Amino acid sequence: MLMNQDPLSELLSNLQLRAEVYVHADFCGHWAVDTSGQRRIPFHMLGSGQGWLHLEGQEPLRLKAGDLVLFPHDAKHLVSSQSDVKAKVRLNDPGQQEDGVATNLLCGFFDFDNLGTSTLLDELPGVIVLELGEQGQHSAIRTLVELMVSELELAQPGSYVVVNQLCHLLFVQLLRLQIAKGLDTGLLAALFDRRISAALSAIHQYPERQWTLDSLAKLAAMGRTRFSQQFHLLVGISPIKYLTQWRMQSAKRLLETTQRSTMDIAQACGYQSEVAFRKAYRSLMGKTPGQSRKQGNI
């Protein structure tokens, strides 16, 4: 039996999630790592040793082996060997063995090529700290990280691709964890809501269909008014506005990654008139379809 993609999978595919590990090294002596400010979602994990997390306006947080730190909104931060950020340290430089005690550090990022107007990350906290060294805690995430570290240490052919794919799995597990912790508003919460997710799944899979508030409410097995209120409460915008945003994000991806005609893309996104599509696209995306095409990779 063939299965349709769930709405979260559809969303991540359309937003074009990318992930990469770019540092796996022993940092020795007095060191510090700052990867913020790149408009990505950086993460760090301590494989061994210890360190300190510094965030603006907060007391330093001690990190120990197995701790994973993620910054959904690219918060300004510093991970260092010292609790005192004023201490003299080497920035983004692992140093040499003779420099002192080593801390094994794994650093990477998550990114979206087509995040656009999506509110997927809006309700996530500024920093997420998971203590993966604690037995029985977050076993699925710990297993993924262990596999990543093993691949990096063995450095066999294909390890780069394997590690980056494991990063994708890690990101999904982190999103699931936030829902399990009680996140009850935002697009992420809506994706895990049984009724609202049915409407989101339909929008994601079939943007070309002529959806109305009534037809979406029927899919959610809810009354028109109740559906509209609940959708807005969770997602933050109306169902029809979300539909338009999704169509435009899908159109942007198709314009940048395919050679399909503008009219063909317009129809694939629910527009029978190219003029109406161009007007809607420019209004929401701040550029014309032609400008998006020129910025693409083809």
Biggest β-sheet strands, sense, barrel: 5 strands, antiparallel
What would you give as the CATH superfamily of the largest domain? Jelly Rolls
Succession of helices and strands: HEEEEEEEEEEHHHHHHHHHH
What's the helix count? Answer: 11
- What is the number of strand segments? 10
Task: Name the CATH architecture of the largest domain.
Answer: Sandwich
The Rg value, from CA coordinates, equals 22 Å
Termini separation: 35 Å
GO molecular function: DNA-binding transcription factor activity; sequence-specific DNA binding
InterPro entries: AraC_lig, AraC_XylS_family_regulators, Homeodomain-like_sf, HTH_AraC, RmlC_Cupin_sf
Domain HTH araC/xylS-type: 197-295
Protein name: AraC family transcriptional regulator
Description:
- α6 crosses α7 (224-235).
- This protein has 11 helices and 10 strands.
- The strands form 2 sheets. It has a 5-stranded antiparallel beta sheet. A 5-stranded mixed beta sheet has the order 5-4-7-2-8, with no helix packed on it.
- By secondary structure, it is of the alpha+beta class.
- The protein is elongated.
Short description:
The protein has helices spanning 7-15, 139-154, 159-180, 187-191, 194-205, 213-219, 224-235, 239-257, 262-268, 274-285, 289-294; strands spanning 17-28, 31-33, 41-48, 50-55, 61-64, 67-70, 77-80, 90-91, 102-112, 128-131. It has two domains: 7-180, Jelly Rolls, CATH 2.60.120.10; 193-294, Arc Repressor Mutant, subunit A. Helix content is 43%, strand content 19%.
Q: Strands, helices and their partners?
A:
Layout: H1 7-15, E1 17-28, E2 31-33, E3 41-48, E4 50-55, E5 61-64, E6 67-70, E7 77-80, E8 90-91, E9 102-112, E10 128-131, H2 139-154, H3 159-180, H4 187-191, H5 194-205, H6 213-219, H7 224-235, H8 239-257, H9 262-268, H10 274-285, H11 289-294
Parallel strand pairs: 2-8
Antiparallel strand pairs: 1-9, 2-7, 3-6, 3-9, 4-5, 4-7, 6-10
Helix pairs in contact: 1-5, 2-3, 6-7, 8-10
